[in-house]
Write the structure tokens for this entry.
Amino acid sequence: MNNHLTLVCGAGGFIGAHLVRRLKAMGRRVRGVDLKLPPFAPSAADEFVQGDLRDPDLAARVVAGSRVVYQLAADMGGAGFVFTGDHDAEIMHNSSQINLNVLEACRRAGVGQIFYSSSACVYPRHNQHDPAAPTTAEDSVCPADPDSDYGWEKLFSERLYFAYARNHGLRVRVARLHNVFGPEGSWNDGREKAPAALCRKVAAAPVGGSIEIWGDGEQTRSFLAIDECLEGVQRFMASDFCGPLNIGSAEMVSIDQLARMIMEIADKPLTIEHIPGPLGVRGRTSDNRLIRARLGWAPSRPLREGLAATYGWIATQVAAAGDAL
């Protein structure tokens, strides 16, 4: 067993809670920190600190004694939260403050290695107009033009991590995660992403009914199952490459195709109604050439497999919520 302390910032969130579980299975001693506990299952962390990483004193306290830090804490959500423009100031302020505090605490504490979860939202919108052929190679990020202030904050924080690496000797790993999904993620709180939102809509719709999709449904994305996300993160941490590195699936589908795949899994044919709503870029997928070159690996699990597990979990949540009414 590795008795060195590993800190997971954002351990109450979807990816963070799963990461804690993965680290414990690897024999790590884990401290988690977040504003909230995981909502769907108890945390597997040896110690869980409920606190606000915007507070530099709290950041210093939880970082103390840590050999490795995973920084996933952020103010974020799906298109309904990120792309309306209503939350831009809080997203930029809160996430920037967290990263400034965590990095400075890591510098002062002499942390051995730190992982930062950036996002595919850093890529410029002018490279993602064509839903059939978006460009997301890691070196295409400049000239910068993210499609949201969430993306701008992530891009700023990437530079912050690399500046601390150059000037203070921190060993950083910066990954650009692409639309991670799976069981135990947000599904009905306004921060859910497309797979969870569509699973909820399909599960709740009556047979022969309809579901609503924002836009024309031709916008494209790729979606990464949580287990492959965690596998990629661990391979990245064990490598000698600092990033930035895409960790995402290259299986690109339209949002209409995603919805129909979920309907097939549920064995529930429904009608799709397209309505106005926040969309983001027209197309995005993960360019996996660099991850293959650097890690000798890339995500390969079929989207349908991850959706089947996610739909089963969300359908159970929808049924339980209905029974509670």
User: Anything to note?
Assistant: The chain has two domains: 2-180+224-247, 183-222+251-281+302-324. Residues 88-109 form the longest helix (22 residues).
